[in-house]
Amino acid sequence: MNRPFYSLIFFFFILSSKVFAQTWTDAEFKKANTAVNADYLTSEEKNIILYMNLIRINGEKFYYTFLEDYINNYNAKVKKYRNYNELKLARNNPYYLSLLKHIKVAKNLAMFYPDEKLSYLSRSHAIDLNKNNLDTHESSNGDKFNQRMSKYFPNKTMSENIDFGYSNSLDIVCHLLLDCGVPSLGHRFNLLDQKYKLNTVGVSIQPHPSYSWCAVIDFVAQQSTLNSR
Asked: pLDDT tens per residue, the chain (229 residues)?
């Protein structure tokens, strides 16, 4: 199929978010799809970057469109469980409410661009988590996050998001964006970053023995000509 990747996403969005479908343009999807030619990433890994960039193009619009899709789909899935009222994402959820305040400032922010070396590091850590059944930023050999990253990106500001339980890109991004149960909201603030100028990302989705799936997203701030493209 030769149609651009972002056009397929746009068509899906028209079907799934009827009320707001016309508010996203092909130009916005094209701008957000910085990973389109990153052949070292899977389609879902490319989609993670696309969705993160859509947040940065217009966070409030993302909140009322794609995030709404995620919440509606999530609530439909957990409705079968006896403790549905505890599991569901209610509109009075404090993390949902606080997100609107934070996400409103996300407007025309710098895009995230994929990096092959950084994605290799993300993949290596995700594979390590899978192999050793871990759920931490620390490697199985005892290396802290900054130790394993600074070997390849010395003297750079960096951060990392790890998500467990999802293999779908939209689910991963929305789960990290809401950051329910994480008082520091560290995952959310990485996605909305302006302070540290994080602009380069590595992404990997891998199986996990305890959580079915894990996704590692690494961020680095480095001087680059990418944003002038």
From this structure: 344 444 444 444 444 444 444 589 999 999 999 999 999 999 999 999 999 999 999 999 999 999 999 999 999 999 999 999 888 999 899 999 999 999 999 999 999 999 999 999 999 999 999 999 999 999 999 999 999 999 999 999 999 999 999 999 999 999 999 999 999 999 999 999 999 999 999 999 999 999 999 999 999 998 765 543 3
User: Do the strands 200-208 and 113-114 form a parallel or antiparallel pair, or are they unpaired?
Assistant: parallel
Q: Report CA torsion sign: 170, 49, 119, 116.
A: positive
CA distance 204 to 62: 23
DSSP H or E run through 162:
strand 157-164
For the beta carbon of residue 156, count every other beta carbon within 10 angstroms.
Answer: 17
C-alpha distances in Å from residue 33, one per residue of 15, 49, 57: 20, 7, 11
Contact 16, 68 (CB under 8 A): no
Nearest to 106 by CA among 74, 136, 61: 61
CA within 13 Å, CB half, 22: 1
